[in-house]
Amino acid sequence: MGYWMWLTRYDGAEVAALLDHPHGLHAGLGRLRNIWDDLPTELGYDPSGALCKLEEIDTHRAWDALHVLLTGLPNEDYEHTSGDPPACDVVMGGMVMNTTGEGSLLRVPRLLRPGQVRAVDTFLRDLDRDALIRDRHAFLKETQPYSFEGWGRLLSGEAWDMVEHGVLANTFDTVRAFYSRAATAGNAVIKEIG
After folding, report:
1. I need a labelling partner for 121 at 20 to 30 A (CA). Which of 8, 26, 87, 177 fits?
2. Helix, strand, or coil here: 63?
């Protein structure tokens, strides 16, 4: 239960074609959102044949902790993205996929274009995962990102958190590998927390 985050990747040219709308970018984002909403649950094309879902991963409930780990900032609310690109783009940044360009971080998909995906890939590739987790573990305990604790119990009876259980490291690796594949293929990425 709880909020999960899904990341999906798509051909960059297909996404660019959908964004190229005579009424501007926000209209293109609205069109992309409508087609994205019609995609099948499994991999493959939407009914119109305009967009193909190439791969999908999820971060389980570790998306907020991953964001805090990468940006070094707590989330004050889920209406605004904290941090700067490319760190914030890994989880929460990107273009809001609707006709207004605004919306909550929850249940509102966000798009990263291929250039942004490459920037995220470079950022993640250059990080020392273990050192980053070690350096920010106390901060994560202090800020208590969504669902950070409650991953079992230590022998002392203290609750295990995502770091101690290995969940955050595994999620980091999964997301880093996903962005690497997306960047190599020139893909766009759509993320949704819901």
Report:
1. 26
2. helix
